[in-house]
Amino acid sequence: MSLLDHLSAKLSAIAAQSLTRTLRRADDGTAPRQNINGRPLLMFCSNDYLGLAAEPAIAEALAEGARTWGGGSGASPLVSGHSAAHEAVTDMLARWYAPHIPQARTIGFCTGYMANLAVVTTLGDEHTEIFSEQLNHASLIDAARLAKAKVTRFPHADLTALRAALTASTARVKLIVTDAVFSMDGDLAPLPALLALADEFDAWLVVDDAHGFGVLGERGRGTLEHFGLHSERLILVGTLGKAAGLAGAFVAAHATIVEYLLQSARNFIFSTASPPAIEHALLTSFALIEGPLGTARRANLVARQTQLRDGLLALIDQHPRLGWQLTDSSTPIQPLIVGGNAEVMALAAALEAAGLRVPGIRPPTVAAGTARLRITLCGTHTATDVDALLTALERAAATQEQAA
Ligand SMILES: *Cc1c(COP(=O)(O)O)cnc(C)c1O
Fold first, then answer.
1. What is the helix (H) or strand (E) element at residue 203, kind and residue range?
2. 335-361, pLDDT tens digit by residue?
3. Taking CB atoms and a 6 Å cutoff, what residues make up the pocket around ligand 1?
4. In the chain, what are the domains?
5. Residue 165: Cβ within 10 Å count
6. Ligand 1 centroid vs 29 CA: distance in angstroms?
7. Under 8 Å between Cβ of 208 and 112
8. Ligand 1: which of 110, 119, 137 to mutate, judged by most atoms within 8 Å of the beta carbon?
9. What is the pTM (predicted TM-score) of this model?
């Protein structure tokens, strides 16, 4: 069989399951309102939770960074790609996490995917067992597959199962790996309980805070601040392309762990450092996150979350036959679980026709039968924006109920 025939057959199978994905073209910057495929849409899908990607001060800092540093970094960090701008970012983040991680040090990566790959494959050697939460992000799952360590999965938020697995383990090093905020459900990992288990079993806790950084905690430092955690067992991965509004990622951990990543993480050593202009702009982003603008946007996020959840619960009450459900989320990720792939795509299409972009999420990203609208809120959404979404969903629900 030729490769092209082979792939065509696979593509047909994807289409037959209503699983075909399509790219949409944005014609301007990310914000609650964006021109997509030539149409202005009100967006409930970005992970730019604080609206910083569209903040003029960030664009200005990026331009200033480009004027100072030019374009790319030109080399990997250990050759000549590591600039004073990179160092200012990692120094600042080390200060942010010093209250949570004794002897905290920070190392930067170009993306969160790369940071997760570095942590899990570098620390997950043949002496290690990885305890991986069932709903972990794809990058953590891929990283565990690449690691030499034994990998044991535990069911979502199931502390009893994790305890049993830790008890049974004879591995010299134990690494519990979890998302802090689950990206398709919006719920929080029970980090205090996970950390207590780590203490009890002499394990280490890798926390991927992609959706908590900037959003949670009084100063936006994320889930560690939210829970008030403090332990040398914490290995934090934060990403900077979501609430920070730019790009990149970091690992904050005990200095020895970070030194080992610097010496051994192949995707740190053999990959070009991020453009220094981005690092320069990240300093502005951090100042906004912990300053009055960040505080105000986090407060607005909480208000919009409450408004949205109240509205969705009323809608579910009015249309019980649709079987829609909310998740136990207290974050800007507020999914509406619809069930079937075709149903969720029809719903997303109806919203798009009404001028709203909310992505339908299907298996394998989520479990079969739990296809959902992944609604995400932004700190710059207004009450009117959320009302517009609720009104459009109300119309779509009435239509789907008639068809059912
Ligand atoms: C987005 C995301 C990542 C990947 O981060 P990028 O910087 O986008 O590569 C990792 N983990 C989680 C939980 C994410 O949601």
1. strand 203-208
2. 999 999 989 999 999 999 999 999 999
3. 111-113, 116, 137, 139, 179, 183, 208, 210-211, 239, 241, 249
4. 24-54+292-403 (3.90.1150.10), 56-290 (3.40.640.10)
5. 18
6. 20
7. yes
8. 137
9. 0.96
